[in-house]
Amino acid sequence: xxxSTSKLEENLRSLLSNRAGFESGPRPQDLTVRLTRAxxxxxxAQALCTQGLSFxxxxxxxxxxxxxxxxxxxxxxxxxxxxxxxxxDIFVTVVASLDVAHPELPSISSNVPSANWHEREAKDLFxxxxxxxxDLRPLVLHDGWPQGLYxxxxxxxxxxxxxxxxxxxxxxxxxxxxxxLEVPVGPIHAGIxxxxxxxxxxxxxxILHLEPRLFYTHRGLEKRVEGLTVDDAFYVVERICGxxxxxxxxxxxxxxxxxxxxxxxxxxxxxxxxALELERLYNHVGDIGxxxxxxxxxxxxxxxxxxxxxxxxxxxxxxxxxxxxGLVTPGGVRLDVTSELVRSIESALSVIEExxxxxxxxxxxxxxxxxxxxxxxILRQKDAINLGVTGVAARASGVDRDARRDHPHVAYxxxxxxxVSVVTSLDGDVHARLSLRAAEARESMRxxxxxxxxxxxxxxxxxxxxxxxxxxxxxxxxxxxxxAALHWLRIDANGRVDRYHLRSASYANWPAVPLAAQNxxxxxxxxxxxxxxxxxxxxxx
Length: 541
Fold this sequence. Notes:
Blueprint: H1 6-16, E1 20-24, E2 31-35, H2 41-50, E3 53-63, E4 70-79, E5 92-99, E6 104-106, H3 116-126, E7 129-131, E8 180-185, E9 197-203, E10 206-213, H4 221-224, H5 230-238, H6 245-260, H7 266-293, H8 298-319, E11 328-329, E12 332-333, H9 339-364, H10 367-373, H11 381-386, H12 391-395, H13 403-406, H14 430-453, E13 472-480, E14 483-491, E15 497-503, H15 505-509, H16 512-517, H17 525-532, H18 536-539
Helix pairs in contact: 1-2, 5-6, 6-7, 7-8, 7-14, 7-17, 8-9, 9-14, 14-17
């Protein structure tokens, strides 16, 4: 176990007395705390938060077929911005064992707001009751899903089609008062996007309350990968989201490689890093173009679309796919970067750099656009921290977190690998989120050029055993275009996926959108929503 966790373990031992066991894992520097009583979860969570750790993810597992015959809930924490731990690349897992017949434990959501969705999801999919939870309405399972049927239990047949039951209207907060109106938007929209329902409570145009409801197209992909080989499961994970193909595929690969104890060759790590930054770049420039659309600035929309199109054509030359699929593979990468491709990338970057500077100059000198961007959709730093917001949305609110630096992966972890300059802002508004994307796009171009100038020689990949020599757990964080995506993977003794769980950046950030929109006006909601640029697909996994 890493020395930096020893003080943390000492404090937890003092708090929990003899009611917990301690071990290193999943990685050598990580700490796992196994509680003997589920009711001690809030105390353990409070102790970790007091020392500056923040809640990252909840993973529920059905282990009824094991010797312990139970359900387990794992609360995973990581160092936050105020952590006293000297090393940020640490995960602390608090494990509670629950009776399969009556799975119940105290909720931590009242004191740890970022755990709210996670506990609601575990209730829906595993049937776990979280006592004293502030809002236990269904989250993932929609109207008509049969009561008492939990789709991530091992006994549930994922191929079956469930009969829909009659259901009452979904309960929502009713705002009453003189002049108060409800404005429902969605779930079907005019654009080519996935469904999401937004219920606005307004007085005039001012938003008093916004209640979003998502998960209309939840695909059950975590159930789908159960029992698959690593190679087969990888192709499912890579397709969870179109525009995060590299990020999600890489997270699954790194978790697999942890379990298999294999090291990807240096050239493979460098090309993986290159792909991550190209993915970030084409997402950022596209998002920079999408945001002005909410202000009716159509030049910005067109300019962003042109930049994104140029980069996606480059992606296709690199991988044969506009979304960079088919490059990353367990053990490394499938495709090399030739000298001709290096020249193509450098040429494309020169065009994008000039176009981005031109677009940002036009936006920053357009008073009517700035009037719509400034002080709109403010997310305060304290709220961003409490909700566990990540990525651009967090950094634009002054939260200094970036998984490329805090949980180094691929070439970012190498001694001579690229170092990321993390940019933050305290404004927390639409303008800050737009400007930060531009700064991060320029940083991505710098990193890409540095990688191309020093690509190491050697093999592209290493073989990963078809049947892993040991079962185990892999846990990693990958900085996707929208923020840190956390991947938890457990392989069984036959080398097949027993449980896989993804906490995407969009999943972490969606609860912040209604908070940022509160007290703004309905015409500004498209601006606010686009400035977060969250993904339905990453959420409906």
